[in-house]
Fold:
Amino acid sequence: MSAAEAVSVALPVGVNGVESVTMTVIPDGDHVTIVDCGVWRPDLPDGGVGALEAGLEGAGYALRDVSRIVVTHAHIDHYGMAGRLMELTGAPLLMHAHTDLDCEKYRHPDTARARRRDTYADHGVSETERTDLADHLTRWLPYLHSVVEASQRLRGGEVLTIGGEDWDVVHTPGHSLGHVCLWSPTRELLLSGDHLLPGITPPVTFERGFDADPLRSYLDSLRRIADLRPQLVHPGHGRPFGDAVGRIEAILRNKLRRLERVRAAIRERPYTVTELADLLVAKAILAHQRQLAISETLAHIAYLRWSGAVERRTRSDGVYEWYATGDAPLDVKSGLRAAPSAP
Ligand SMILES: [Zn+2]
Structure:
């Protein structure tokens, strides 16, 4: 008897330039496991539940059949509907233990915003721009139905049996510290969330209190997935694709090229993160693009710092600037990292 196929459904999002997100429906006998669940829609009478139900129906299931909800990471486009869905189905929510940090942030958005404004101030973002940039979170929050913690806390390494087949939970920190992929060794199929996307290089951003070196975590996680040699990837956004290893190599090249660019600039003269972000992303016009550019630049700086290639000093105006300190190789696997701290 062969188990039924996993079906991926695009749910509409329409926030901050994110068009849609993938929900994957994995049949499990009379029941069904879903992976990622899209956003809560405060503007729709049904809160967006209808689109999700239609997706389930397309796979031959109804809401009452949902017996397990897996969320690849607690970004609101993947997780916003989870609380509502738990109310409607009674199903448990499986997420990585580190998604606690995201839940904490959603419970205390004012603290998160203040922390981000502090970071921006330290790195040279002007006062007028600071509040606008820190408001990124505010724009997403209405699409979060409620803050729900994992009922089953994943660590990576678990095996979920769904429809008589094994799915391995693979912890893939980087895009988000609590990110997991689901891997079917039988089908050589990866549900990649935002770890691996077609067309775009997934953003890897630094945020104080989260991963101290998220870009290194991300590159390590990419290599972990490449070792599995997936034949097919169902990504969190966009269409399924093959040649995962080719895609991973392209993303690795892209990230390492950017690291080299940042390092080359700092070798010429000291830079602030704001200056580097402008250098790297010339067309970051919208607030959320600029916010992303600065947070990504911070991730590059963290990587270079933990590599021993750059160091920080404080200018007379109180802004951090970064100067070159050594010729350490950049493409190295992670060792032990220091506890979360600056940049
Ligand atoms: Zn994400």
In short: Confidence is low (pLDDT under 50) at residues 334-340. The pocket of zinc ion is lined by residues 73, 75, 175-176, 194 (CB under 6 Å).
